């Protein structure tokens, strides 16, 4: 039995998330169907983590076990020819039996993209949340530093989260402003919010972003971010940001 790991990119727009759901139409479903077509085997694909409906991935890491003897260098092309065009296997390798895409992961990075301009970008609209009003970027940058470190993130996860422990460690959290070229307001452009941690709770990054947006709009002071975190109360934080601006950027082992 071989343990195959692969890195996959996908546009989550038309999927009900990564993990198999009763309603079907998930990224996991598509991957398992492609493997069945290729090898004749019914397998279970394990991912580094679930992504919600509408969320994208630049480098999701998955693994599965197979009896197939197909050379590892042929897996990517073989699967891509059997997958829809919005899912691409970027690489594949054979890993030890003990490797587990989720349990073996050490660090994950998510990025959230906000288009700050009067009009949305017609070509990037599926991957950027459009915010037509002014955002105080300096206040948002000040606020995001509060989440770095080991904390209980109850305030920043869905009330439907079933895990007992809400403690996670955030190693890095930053906001990069990529300004538009030309004669446009200096705040116009794209905000890339990047968060790296040892794990994430259900809707955690999207709620952090939703709270940061309210701070950027002047609805909350930047200093409130720490108080929200310490309150351990979901009702204290902002709304859950739209799914399409979020992307699983990388996973480290």
Automatic annotation (TrEMBL):
GO molecular function, one term: tRNA pseudouridine(38-40) synthase activity
Active-site residues per Swiss-Prot or TrEMBL entry: 52
Keywords recorded for this protein, A-Z: Isomerase, tRNA processing
Domain Pseudouridine synthase I TruA alpha/beta, first and last residues per copy: 8-102, 143-253
Superkingdom per UniProt: Bacteria
First-level EC class: isomerase
Residues that bind substrate: 110
Enzymatic reactions: uridine(38/39/40) in tRNA = pseudouridine(38/39/40) in tRNA
InterPro entries, per database record: PsdUridine_synth_cat_dom_sf, PsdUridine_synth_TruA, PsdUridine_synth_TruA_a/b_dom, PsdUridine_synth_TruA_C, TruA/RsuA/RluB/E/F_N
EC id: 5.4.99.12
Subunit details: Homodimer.
Family named by the database record: Belongs to the tRNA pseudouridine synthase TruA family.
Function text: Formation of pseudouridine at positions 38, 39 and 40 in the anticodon stem and loop of transfer RNAs.
Protein name as annotated: tRNA pseudouridine synthase A
Organism: Paenibacillus chartarius
